[in-house]
Design brief:
Blueprint: E1 2-6, E2 9-13, E3 28-31, E4 38-41, H1 43-57, H2 61-74, H3 76-82
Antiparallel strand pairs: 1-2, 3-4
Length: 84
């Protein structure tokens, strides 16, 4: 499990995601593909979000649920905008 420290909080990343693109000093805007609503996320949360969206395409609902649970715990407002 990967651990990322961001704003003095440690986040356990639930998946093995590529965190080498590390723009720690800025947030990345992500749009809900259905509503168009946007949320700003740190790079590691975007990596988890991208994995969730890919897992949906492959109907890997266990991975989708695991990622959604992580998002709801760590980024509840963004979860409601992007994934709920």
């Amino acid at each position: 499990m990967q651990v990322v420290k961001y704003n003095d909080i440690e986040y356990n990343i639930p998946f093995d995601v590529d965190l080498t693109l590390d723009p720690q000093d800025k947030l990345i805007d992500v749009a809900n593909p259905f509503s168009g609503a946007k949320a700003s996320l740190p790079w590691f949360a975007v990596a988890v979000y991208d994995l969730i969206m890919g897992a949906q395409q492959f109907e890997d609902y266990e991975t989708v649920q695991q990622g959604c649970d992580w998002f709801a715990k760590h980024f509840p407002k963004e979860y409601m905008t992007l994934l709920d």
